[in-house]
Amino acid sequence: MSGHSKWSSIKHQKGVADARRGKLFTKLTREIILAVRENGSNSETNYHLRLAIQKAKDNNMPSDNIERAIKRGEGTQGDATLSELVLEGYGPGGAAILVEALTDNRNRTIQEVRSIFSRSGGSLGENGSVTWLFEQKGLITIEIGNKDIDELSLQAIDAGAADVIPQANYVEIYTKPEDLEVVRKTLEENNITVSSAELAKIPKTTVQLEEQAATQALKLLNKLEELDDTRSVCSNVDFQDDVLEKFRNQE
Q: Between residues 132 and 145, which one has the greater pLDDT?
């Protein structure tokens, strides 16, 4: 698939560490709050709330936490106003980077993101500078384990998936945004355990960087991911396996 980025493999494995630091639950809570405030607390009619709740469950967020987040979104528990923010920039080697955030202080978030870019050999760009390089897709992740990849791929395609890309120890399944829930449900009905399912910005085309620039880009992406306000970070870099492995060992 043209446009696939292996940064997702780093994010996929970072989840457990983020949860230990308590950051992941904070980010998931914010997504639920925003979804409720935008379209109500009825998950049957609120598509984005359903996705946010499912994402929280995928990451083992307790049901009590989910319910509290919904109440905060309804305004029955005090909370600051959250707003969505999209920031665009360039990293080492000219890597295009898109940062989506949920924040209660836009100026603070912009300053934090700008600072990370500048300290990491990159620069924050103007609105629209890199957004056009990405498109939204549904992304489902499944651990391979002892599954037959060819059979799994066929099941995913039959369920409505647009593309299936095997990685080292998991499979990424891409769908149209509106097909994400249906494909996930169909796979689970076929007794396939889904590790995660989300709407994601996927690069239309990718670039490869030499090792030093690629490593610097990974460090920049990681710093952006660790910001409390960050919702998602995506890049158009196709990281080589050996670079990814070295970066993992440094974490």
A: 132
